[in-house]
Design a protein that fits this description.
This protein is mainly α. It is built from 8 helices and no strands.
Length: 129
Amino acid sequence: MDIVDKTKKTAELYFNDIKEESPYKLWKSFDKDLAKDLSLFITGQMYAREKVPHRVRQLITIASLTVLVRPEELRLHLHAALNVGCTPEEITEVIFQTSVYGGMPATNTALKIFKSVLEAKGLWPLQPE
C-alpha cells in the first residue's frame, strides 16, 4: 500500500467522527504543502506502524498528553482511542495511572475532557462493572 493510501486509511480509522477542526485542516489553512508532508509522516508512517497495536498506541498517547496537559490534542486522541477499540474503563485506568507522574490536576483535567468526549458519543454515564 502506498503512503497516501496508508495515510487515508489510518486517518479514517482514528479520526472519522471528529467534529472539531482536525490538525490537518488547521495546518492546511497555513501551508498546504507542509500540511501534506506532516500528515503523510504522522498519520501515514508513525500511526500506521504495526509494531504495537493501534489500541496500545492510543493508550500511550493518552498517557503522554495527560501528563503534558495538552487538552486539545488529548480530546482528539480520546476519540481516536475509542474508535480503535479501547474501552472507557481502560482509558480511565490509564488516566488515573498518570496521576503518579503528572499530578492530580493533570488527571482531573484529562477526566473532565474524557467525560465530555463520552457524553458527545452517548457513552455517559458509564455503567458500573
